[in-house]
Amino acid sequence: MNHYKDRLEKIEDALYRTMPEKSSRNWIEKVAGDVSEGLDEPTADRFNAPGLELLGRGGKRWRPLVMVLMAEAAGGSEEVYRLTPLVELPHNGSLIVDDIEDKSEERRGGKSVHIIHGDDISINAGNLMYFLPSYLIDESSLAPEGKFRLYSAYSRAMRRLHFGQGMDIQWHNDHDYIPTEVEYLQMTRFKTGCLSSLAANLAVIEAGGSKELEKKAGQIWEDIGVGFQILDDVMNLKKGNPGKMRGDDIVEGKKSLPMILHCEAVPESIEPMKVLFEKAAGDDESAAVEAVAEAISMIEGSGSLEKAGIMGLEVLNKAKAELKELFPGKEAVRLMIEVVDGFIEKML
Q1: Which GO terms describe its biological process (predicted)?
Q2: Helices 285-301 & 270-280, crossing angle to 10 degrees?
Q3: Non-local CB neighbours of 267 within 8 Å, separated by 6+ positions
């Protein structure tokens, strides 16, 4: 990872300039306009605190890294670093809100942010992180047409992100409803693929690339985001995701791809699976643990966990090939593919 170090340090610097640990009058006026003395620095610091709590725990930062590498491949400039918070801050904001909606207790190896700071200020901070970095577009040196394209791509991604979250919420609140594979893939394109797609879109726009190139690059990285989510679903049931317990998706009532494939392959198990999901979400901790283990065993037994893993790899391998064709011979592409392969290795 040494060849990523300088890039990641510049990304980190951009994140904390956009959402500083200590606010200033200059920062407040940049993001909120002229507020005179009506909003002081300590107040701004308090409603930034939940977001900074999560940012401070790290995270992979692969979306802004992809944005930088895509800009390099497309012939962009160093200014792309200033724009990287447009993909990383909304991602972190979505995690804060997601944990409240899912009643999750852990995130990135610590207590979920809302447990520390409270639901109300955490919701506000999560929502702020969706929109806070938009002022970076105003400050960009791009011509008006370029700024319009940045705003258009960014706004579309925020809408898609919320559509995806809305679909996911409806499904895990209704244990009787089993989505189809097609519905799952659309939800994943909305919820997970949109920010990786946005990273590619913004990079191409910053580099002065055509709308056709923007669309193609965005589609490739949306596919990669979908592939990552499928493998993340698999890892959750195989060994657990970092900072979360194995089988958390079942406890939270999430309809992941392995579960959907299982219900399609063994329809007579749908009713027993619904019962297990109810028990997994119940107050009896011992019964919940047993229900999670039984549900995972059923999904593994039908071969659905393995099938989902194969599907995820197929999506990623196809996208990697398309990326090589889009920018043949580019070092930045080699590094992007290395990022993808690194995730595959960790997830499987």
Answers
A1: isoprenoid biosynthetic process
A2: 150
A3: none
Decide if 133 contacts 86 (C-beta within 8 A).
yes
Residue type, 45: D
Whether the pLDDT of residue 193 is over 60: the answer is yes
DSSP string, 69-128: HHHHHHT--TTHHHHTHHHHHHHHHHHHHHHHHHT--EETTEE-HHHHH-HHHHHHHHHH
Sign of CA pseudo-dihedral 240, 244, 246, 248: negative
Q: Which residue has the tokens 């300088």?
A: 6
Angle between helices 211-238 and 62-74 (to 10 degrees): 150
- Phi first, then psi, for residue 97 (nearest 5°) are -65, -40
Backbone φ, ψ for residue 338 (5° rounding)? -65, -40
Those residues whose C-beta lies under 8 Å from the C-beta of residue 120, and which sit 6 or more positions away, are none
| CA dist., res. 244 & res. 263, Å (int) | 25
- Owner of token pair 């549900």: 295
What structural domains and CATH numbers belong to the chain? 2-347 (1.10.600.10)
**Residue 155 CB partners (closer than 8 Å, separation 6+):** none
Displacement of CA 23 from its chain's centroid (Å) = 26
Any bridge partners for residue 110, and if so which? Answer: 107
Amino acid at 18: T
Mean pLDDT of 176-180: 91
49: its two tokens: 């605190």
Q: Tokens representing 344?
A: 């595959």
Rounded to whole angstroms, how far apart are CA atoms 167 and 101? Answer: 13
Compute CA 93 distance to the chain's CA centroid, rounded to the nearest angstrom.
10
Q: Which residues pair with 106 in a beta bridge?
A: 111
What is the model's pTM? 0.92
Amino acid 171 reads W
Which of 56-60, 219-223, 305-309 has the lowest average pLDDT? Answer: 56-60
294-to-49, 241, 273, 289, 291 alpha-carbon distances in Å: 40, 19, 9, 9, 5
Stretch among 198-212, 230-244, 246-260, 277-291 having the lowest mean pLDDT:
230-244
Looking up tokens 């340090």 gives 9
